[in-house]
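Notes to self, Arsenate reductase:
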Amino acid sequence: MTAITIYHNPACGTSSNVLALLRRAGPEPRVIEYLTTPPSGAELVDFAARMGLPLKALLREKGTPFEALDLGRAGITDAEILAAIAEHPILINRPIVVAPAGVRLCRPSDVVLDLIDAPRERLTKDDDAPYLKDEPVGAAEIAAPLQAAGLHIEDIAEPGRSFFRYRTLDGATVGWGGFEIHGADALLRSIVVEPPARGTRIGRNLVALLMRRAFDRGATRAYLATRDAAPFFAACGFKPIAREALPPAIAATRQLADLCPASATVMSRRITL
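result:
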């Protein structure tokens, strides 16, 4: 069996969570501490291509010279990105996992479950939040939990909706969520944490994983409307936005144009890895 390789930063909680799960799931992975042994430019280009992401998606912004080097500017080339990484390996986002099943930038850490067989036991991260496995579901499966939470179901069977069930690794259903993609914008919707799972840090992890799936489909900004959960979403990095400032495609969704009351708080944030 080909060994799994993780490009790891031991000072990063997400990277450490991924490494812990890899070790629990199978043989010891090959661990490369990329700050001292960074991947080559050719390897990074290959990783990005195998992930289906632009090279710039592998850049880390927080705690790096990303802004000082103006790496977010329009028109930046892959050659410029690789030159910056060669000088500052801290710019590589982490962790990157290379496995027989594919290559992933595993942010949030739950994404590594795309590459491995999950252990069938409830495991938690370093903040005691459980790892989550998401699975696509249809309108028929999500209708009952949405109704029980008092959320709208009138449009869930219409085209363009993607819905997910979230389970812990021991198989317990702990939440639901969905989105609509409109170009580079995603409308997050239908987010429910099952009552027994509330207060266990699952909600934030669910939202992070939902945004990652939207990012993988081309979204770079997320929007949502909420009647009573604005403080929770603010803790997830969302900020209120006036309805007049919404992109037309988001404003025209049934959720915003018809189903959500005018009193609902509309919020937005960038989707970053």
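- The first strand starts at residue 5 and ends at 8.
- The mean pLDDT is 96.
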